[in-house]
Design a protein that fits this description.
single chain, flat, alpha+beta, 15 helices, 4-stranded antiparallel beta sheet, about 650 residues, 5-stranded mixed beta sheet
C-alpha cells in the first residue's frame, strides 16, 4: 500500500485564514462607525418629528376639550337637562391634565419660552370663559333661564372661544410647520444613510469577494493535495464488484423497513452509497458513509411524515378558510340588513351552512325583557318561548355544554344534549343560541363545538347592531314627548303617499289640528301640565287613527293625521270623533283639574287644487285657521 503525505506548509491553516479576515474586519468596524453616525442623525430627526406630532396631538386634544365644554354648556342652556353637562364636566376634569401635558411637550420644542407664553394665553382664555361664561350660564339656567339665554346672546363666550381657537390654531400652525421641517430633515438624513449603506455595502461586498476568492484558493490548494493523496490511497486498494442491488454498498443502512430509496437525482442515501468504494485503508470513509445513509433514511421518513402532516393541515386550513369566508359573508349580509326580521331570514339560511349537521334555535328578549321569544330555528328544532331565568347558560353567563351541566336539571321545554350559548354585546344580554346534533342520540362533534363561539360572537354583534339601528331609527322619526311621528317623518310619508295616490287613483286626506288656548293652559297650570295634556291628546289621536294612517306631532300644540285611502267625508268623520273625544276628557295633573280641552281641526283632501304635499298641507292649515275663526272646538273642511 502506498502512503500519501499532505504538505500543509510552515504556516498553520487556521492562522492563514485569520490573517485574510483582518482587512474585512477593520473595514467592517469603520463602516459600522460611519453608519452609526448617519443612523444617529436620522434617529434624532425622527425623534424631533415625533415630538412635533405629540405637540400637535396635545393641541388637538385641548381643542376637543374646549369644544366638548362649549357643546355641553350650550346643550344644557338650551334643553335644561343636566345630562348635557356630562361632556362639559368630563372635559373640565381632564383640562388640567391636557394643559400640563401640553406644557411638558412644549418644553421640548425649538422655541420653548415663546410656546410657554402661548400656552399661558390659551389657558387664560379658557379659564376666563369658564369663570365668566360657562359657570354663570350653568348657574343661571337652573334659576333664571332667560338670563342664561341673554348671556348666550351677548356672544361674550363666543368671542372668548374664538380667541382660544385662534391661539390654538396659530400654535398648531407653527408646530405643523416645524413638523414639516423636521420630516424634511429626516428625509435628508435617510438619503444620507441610504448613500452610506450603498457605499459601505459595495466596499464590503468587493472586499468580501476578494477575501472569499483568496480563501477559496487557499482551501482548494490544500484540499487538492489531500484529495490527490486520498486518490492514491484508493487506487492502491482493490474495488470489488458488488453482488447486491446496484448502487448500494455492502455496509449501507438502507433497507426495506426504512422505506424506498430516493430517486437517482436526489442527493440522498442511495446517491451517497453509489459513490462509495470499499477500501482497505481508513480515510474516514466507510463508517461515516453508513451513518450518513442511515441518517438520510431517518430524515426521509420524518420528511415524508411531515409532508403528510402538512397536507392534512393544509386541508384543515382550506376548510377553515372556506368557513371563515362564509362567516365573513354572513357578517357582510347582516351589516346590510335593515331590520331584525330581515336579519333573522339571513341567519336561517346561514346557520345550517356554518354549522352543518346541527339543529337549533335563536331566541331574543321581548320588549319587556321578561321572556325569550324565538327569532328563528333550523333543522327539526321547535321554537320555544321561556323566561330568561329558566336558562342555565344565562344564569351563569357562560356557554353550557351537556358535559358541564350533569347535575343541573334541564331547562323547561328542553330535552337532549343541547349546547346553549348566551349572546352578549357591550355587557348587555341579547339572547340565547341553542345548538344540538341533528341526530338526537349523538353529541356535537368537537370540531362543531370549536366553531360555536365565533358564530355566537358574530350573531351577538349583528343583533346589537340591528337593535341599535332600530332604536336610532325610532329616535329619528318619533317625537320624544308623545311618541307620535315627527315632522320629518310626516313629510317623507306624505311625499310617498301623494305619489301613490296619484299613481293608483285612490283618495288621500290630511287632518291638521291644534289645541285651543294652549298658551293659556301653560300660563295657568305650568308647562308640566301642558305636556301632560299633550300626551293625553296624542293618546286620543292614536286611538282615533285607523290602521295605515300616520299620526304626527309637527311641533308645539299642533298635530296631524295623514289618512291614505280615506276621502273627505271619512276624514271629516274621524276628525269629528276625535274632537268629541278630546272635549269629553277629564284632564287632571298633580291632583288639579285642568278644565275642558278642545281642538280646532281642518280637513283637506288631495284634489286638483291641492295636488302636492305642500298644497295639501296648506289646504289643511287654512281649514284649521277657519275653524279657529269660527269659534274653535269645531271641524272645518278645506
Amino acid at each position: 500500500m502506498d502512503t500519501a503525505i499532505v504538505d500543509t506548509g510552515p504556516v498553520p491553516l487556521r492562522r492563514l485564514l485569520l490573517l485574510t479576515q483582518f482587512p474585512l474586519w477593520a473595514l467592517t468596524i469603520l463602516s459600522f462607525v460611519f453608519l452609526l453616525g448617519a443612523l444617529d442623525a436620522r434617529v434624532q430627526a425622527t425623534n424631533d418629528a415625533t415630538q412635533a406630532r405629540v405637540r400637535i396631538e396635545n393641541l388637538s386634544d385641548l381643542l376637543v376639550r374646549v369644544l366638548d365644554m362649549e357643546t355641553g354648556v350650550r346643550g344644557y342652556v338650551i334643553a335644561g337637562d343636566p345630562v348635557f353637562l356630562e361632556p362639559y364636566q368630563s372635559a373640565r376634569a381632564a383640562l388640567p391634565g391636557d394643559l400640563l401635558a401640553l406644557r411638558d411637550t412644549m418644553r421640548l420644542s425649538g422655541t420653548p419660552e415663546q410656546n410657554a407664553r402661548n400656552v399661558d394665553r390659551i389657558e387664560t382664555l379658557i379659564f376666563r370663559w369658564l369663570a365668566e361664561i360657562a359657570t354663570p350660564e350653568i348657574n343661571l339656567r337652573a334659576t333664571d333661564p332667560d338670563a342664561a339665554a341673554e348671556l348666550v346672546r351677548s356672544q361674550r363666550g363666543k368671542k372668548l372661544l374664538d380667541a382660544t381657537r385662534a391661539q390654538i390654531a396659530a400654535l398648531n400652525a407653527r408646530e405643523t410647520q416645524a413638523l414639516q421641517d423636521r420630516e424634511a430633515e429626516a428625509v435628508r438624513q435617510l438619503e444620507r444613510l441610504r448613500l452610506a449603506l450603498l457605499l459601505a455595502g459595495s466596499v464590503l461586498v468587493l472586499l468580501g469577494l476578494v477575501n472569499a476568492l483568496a480563501q477559496a484558493g487557499l482551501i482548494t490548494r490544500y484540499l487538492g493535495n489531500l484529495t490527490r493523496a486520498a486518490q492514491r490511497l484508493t487506487d492502491a486498494a482493490p474495488t470489488p464488484t458488488p453482488a447486491h442491488a446496484p448502487g448500494l454498498s455492502p455496509g449501507s443502512s438502507l433497507s426495506p423497513e426504512s422505506g424506498p430509496a430516493p430517486a437517482d437525482d436526489t442527493p440522498g442515501a442511495a446517491t451517497l452509497e453509489r459513490r462509495r468504494a470499499p477500501v482497505t485503508v481508513q480515510v474516514g470513509g466507510p463508517r461515516e458513509f453508513r451513518e450518513l445513509a442511515g441518517t438520510f433514511n431517518l430524515m426521509s421518513q420524518r420528511l415524508q411524515a411531515a409532508q403528510q402532516e402538512a397536507r392534512d393541515r393544509a386541508d384543515q386550513l382550506a376548510q377553515r378558510n372556506t368557513w371563515m369566508r362564509s362567516l365573513g359573508e354572513l357578517s357582510d349580509a347582516m351589516q346590510a340588513a335593515r331590520s331584525l326580521d330581515e336579519g333573522a331570514r339571513i341567519l336561517e339560511r346561514a346557520l345550517p351552512l356554518l354549522l352543518p349537521g346541527t339543529r337549533g334555535a335563536l331566541s331574543h328578549h321581548n320588549a319587556s325583557r321578561n321572556l325569550l321569544v324565538p327569532l328563528l330555528h333550523w333543522g327539526d328544532e321547535a321554537a320555544v318561548t321561556h323566561a330568561p331565568d329558566h336558562c342555565w347558560a344565562l344564569r351563569r353567563g357562560e356557554v353550557q355544554h351537556p358535559d358541564n351541566r350533569r347535575f343541573a336539571p334541564p331547562c323547561p321545554g328542553q330535552s337532549g344534549a343541547y349546547t346553549c350559548l348566551p349572546l352578549f354585546s357591550h355587557g348587555e344580554t341579547l339572547g340565547l343560541l341553542r345548538v344540538a346534533n341533528a341526530d338526537p342520540d349523538q353529541p356535537l362533534p368537537d370540531t362543531t363545538r370549536a366553531l360555536l363561539p365565533g358564530v355566537a360572537r358574530q350573531i351577538a354583534l349583528a343583533l346589537a347592531s340591528l337593535r341599535l339601528q332600530d332604536r336610532l331609527l325610532q329616535q329619528s322619526i318619533r317625537d320624544p314627548l308623545t311618541g307620535l311621528f315627527n315632522r320629518r317623518h310626516l313629510e317623507d310619508v306624505m311625499n310617498e303617499q301623494v305619489a301613490l295616490a296619484h299613481a293608483e287613483g285612490r283618495p288621500l286626506s290630511l287632518i291638521a289640528l291644534d289645541v285651543d288656548h294652549f298658551k293659556r293652559l301653560n300660563d295657568t297650570f305650568g308647562h308640566d301640565a301642558g305636556d301632560a295634556a299633550l300626551v293625553r291628546i296624542s293618546a286620543a289621536l292614536k286611538d282615533a287613527a285607523p290602521p295605515g294612517s300616520t299620526p304626527a306631532r309637527p311641533g308645539g300644540e299642533e298635530f296631524s293625521l295623514l289618512l291614505p285611502g280615506t276621502d273627505e267625508s271619512g276624514a271629516a268623520a274621524i276628525a269629528e270623533n276625535l274632537r268629541a273625544q278630546v272635549a269629553a276628557l277629564d284632564l287632571r295633573h298633580a291632583g288639579i283639574a285642568l278644565g275642558q280641552i278642545t281642538l280646532s281641526l281642518g280637513v283637506a283632501t288631495l284634489n286638483a287644487d291641492a295636488a302636492t304635499p305642500a298644497a295639501l298641507t296648506v289646504a289643511a292649515d287654512q281649514a284649521l285657521y277657519a275653524a279657529k275663526r269660527q269659534g274653535r272646538n269645531r271641524v272645518e273642511l278645506a
